[in-house]
Amino acid sequence: MPVQVELRPSLKAALAPLIMVTIAGIIATLIPFYIPQRYSYVIELALAFILIIFMKGRGAILSIPFFVASLCYFNKYLALLSLLVIVLEDIIIIKLFKSTKIMISSSEIIVKRDYVIKSSIKTIPKTSVAEISVTQGILEKIMGFSDIIIVLRNGEKIRVEGVKKDEAEKALELIRSK
């Protein structure tokens, strides 16, 4: 079957939260150097909370270095190490974003993921799709991209993050037209 729509997460979708995390990481790393310890915990927690709100589940994982930095007042080199961890997380997330591709034809959906160690291709007949939705969080609305969530009849969920909003809507219509 010829592919009617091919979707890839946009690099903009990967970079927006990463830039936000990196800026927050730089701020969190500098806090132990310039702000008294009694105030810095509150600022660190506020930064982590903002990330969790804006970036959904990713924010919880990416905010870990901020807590590491806030615990490193006795060794400021460890606070700088937390910034290095954030940069490594940025690289990993960009690789993960670039690894996913979803192709939709008139009868099936093909989800292809190319990771460093392994690759997977999943072919799903449209008839086994129970539900499909396009979601947007706060950051996604600001940046103009969406997440596509496909729920299969067996309960499995397939999530493609960072697709341009108009492409996601087109995919939604195409999948619903079984």
Give a written overview of the molecule:
With 178 residues, this protein is α+β, with helices and mostly antiparallel strands. The protein has 2 domains: 3-10 and 99-176, Pleckstrin-homology domain (PH domain)/Phosphotyrosine-binding domain (PTB) (PH-domain like, Roll), CATH 2.30.29.30; 11-96, no CATH class. Helix 1 (11-34) runs antiparallel to helix 2 (37-62). The mean pLDDT is 75. It has helices at residues 11-34, 37-62, 64-70, 76-98, 138-143, 165-176, and strands at residues 3-7, 100-105, 108-114, 119-125, 129-135, 145-152, 157-164. The strands form 2 sheets. A 4-stranded antiparallel sheet has the order 1-2-3-4. It is elongated. Helices cover 55% and strands 27% of the residues. It has 6 helices and 7 strands.
What key phrases describe this protein's structure?
single chain, elongated, 4-stranded antiparallel sheet, 2 domains, 178 residues, 6 helices, alpha+beta, 3-stranded antiparallel sheet, PH-domain like
Set down the secondary structure blueprint.
Elements: E1 3-7, H1 11-34, H2 37-62, H3 64-70, H4 76-98, E2 100-105, E3 108-114, E4 119-125, E5 129-135, H5 138-143, E6 145-152, E7 157-164, H6 165-176
Antiparallel strand pairs: 1-2, 2-3, 3-4, 5-6, 6-7
Helix pairs in contact: 1-2, 1-3, 1-4, 2-3, 3-4
Structural shape: elongated
The sequence of SSEs as H and E is EHHHHEEEEHEEH
Spatial extent as radius of gyration: 19 Å
CATH topology of the largest domain: PH-domain like
* Secondary-structure-derived class: alpha+beta
**Averaging pLDDT over every residue, what do you get?**
75
CATH superfamily of the largest domain: Pleckstrin-homology domain (PH domain)/Phosphotyrosine-binding domain (PTB)
Helix content: 55-70%
How far apart, in Å, are the first and last alpha carbons? 14 Å
Number of domains: 2
